[in-house]
Design goal:
The complex is a heterodimer of chains A (about 190) and B (about 190).
Chain A (H helix, E strand, L loop, with lengths): L6 H17 L8 H11 L5 H13 L6 H13 L3 H32 L4 H27 L8 H16 L4 H13 L4
Helix pairs in contact in A: 1-5, 3-4, 4-5
Chain B lengths: L10 H14 L5 H11 L5 H13 L4 H40 L7 H25 L9 H18 L4 H24 L1
Helix pairs in contact in B: 1-4, 2-5, 3-4, 6-7
The chains are: A mainly alpha (about 190), B mainly alpha (about 190).
Chain lengths: ~190, ~190
């Protein structure tokens, strides 16, 4: 796949991702459906396979999941003509998705910290605490449900449950657990 | 606050701390952030972590990116925020691009698929355990144990079982919780 991207296209790429940045409540991945519509459906800058593998690879690699956006930029650039474009693509996509949201977070978090004695600020933090804790547990549940609800998938559910108990109750290093999961999976045991 | 907290010695310490956190985070960095910054380095109390996480979660943008920005800002201002952000992103981006350009084909092998599946099951357990470990942070919550448990149960049901979009859950359940906390705080002040 080879593309011709003009400066205006790169600018459009940037502004589209910058708009999504402010809509990404709950993480950048919540805007993935719209990224798909834009990059694969409308602009034809990425193939379906490239889009899906960008998300899968970023989730398998270490680091924040938002790096799937870097991979999308990389792939668009590679399609447009090689490594220098790929680096441009990474910069455009990442700056687009991060600049607006980080600016907003920085400003609001700082305001909240300076006004931490305000009753409204304290109420927000106290009120949200049980909800965000429940959200973490729910996220674990949703990730586990991706195993599928079929009875034959019980080893994966068991692995998730055992991991949760070990992490909750012991100080075992997390990388050992991830390594064990990778080995069990590679040998087809889960 | 009766316990003496630690803090990063320098911007360099901050950068490498976040780099190491990010590089250990397969399938999500949050579990590692909690383990390293709260349990081990003790830069934050469990309560502070939940408060910061609430802000990072509710504002748009990648949650762990928001969180690193806020923690960096607390110790070294804007410079700290940028350094923590760079720590979270620079090396992980290099790693993921390296993986994309060299090992793209490997991800299709059955053993690699299996390893990813196993790691996915483990990271689901990690994130759920992070939530479980934070529950004690609710002990001092102004809303009391009963209301906190009810809010947690409603949030879990809405997100994990009914799959209601996060935005609505935060708006409705979060809104009710904040109003209730606001009321309780007023009662305490009197």
């Amino acid at each position: 796949m080879s593309l011709q991207l003009a400066a205006a296209d790169w600018l459009g790429f940037f502004t589209h991702f910058a708009t999504l940045s402010l809509l990404a409540v709950g993480g950048a991945v919540t805007t993935a459906p719209d990224m798909h519509r834009y990059l694969v459906g409308e602009k034809l800058w990425l193939t379906d396979a490239q889009f899906t593998s960008s998300i899968a690879l970023a989730q398998a690699a270490p680091g924040p999941n938002v790096l799937f956006v870097a991979l999308m930029g990389w792939n668009v650039g590679m399609n447009a003509g090689g490594y220098s474009y790929a680096l441009l693509g990474v910069a455009v996509a990442m700056l687009g998705i991060l600049l607006p949201s980080t600016t907003l977070t920085f400003t609001l978090a700082r305001w909240g910290h300076q006004n931490r004695e305000l009753r409204a600020v304290r109420a927000f933090k106290q009120g949200m605490a049980p909800i965000v804790i429940a959200l973490l547990i729910a996220t674990g549940w949703i990730l586990a449900s991706a195993h599928g609800s079929k009875l034959s998938n019980w080893p994966l559910w068991l692995l998730t449950a055992i991991t949760a108990v070990i992490v909750w109750r012991t100080k075992t290093h997390l990388l050992w657990l991830l390594g064990a999961g990778a080995l069990l999976g590679a040998f087809g045991l889960v | 606050m009766n316990r003496q907290l630690n803090k990063p010695h320098s911007l360099t310490d901050l950068f490498w701390s976040f780099t190491l956190l990010a590089l250990q985070g397969f399938g999500g960095v949050l579990a590692v952030v909690q383990r390293e910054l709260v349990d081990k380095k003790q830069w934050l109390t469990r309560e502070q972590f939940v408060e910061d996480w609430a802000v990072a979660q509710i504002l748009p943008g990648p949650n762990v990116v928001n969180l690193s920005l806020m923690i960096g800002d607390r110790y070294f201002g804007l410079r700290g925020a940028l350094v923590a952000l760079a720590g979270m992103l620079v090396f992980p981006t290099l790693v993921v691009l390296l993986l994309a350009s060299t090992f793209a084909g490997v991800a299709d092998l059955p053993a690699a698929q299996g390893a990813l599946r196993g790691m996915g099951a483990v990271s689901a357990g990690l994130i759920a355990a992070t939530g479980l470990k934070l529950i004690p942070a609710l002990k001092k919550n102004v809303m009391g144990a009963l209301v906190c448990s009810a809010l947690g149960a409603i949030t879990f049901t809405a997100i994990a079982l009914l799959r209601i979009p996060l935005f609505w859950v935060l708006l409705v359940v979060g809104g009710v919780a904040c109003v209730w906390a606001f009321r309780q705080l007023g009662r305490d002040d009197r």
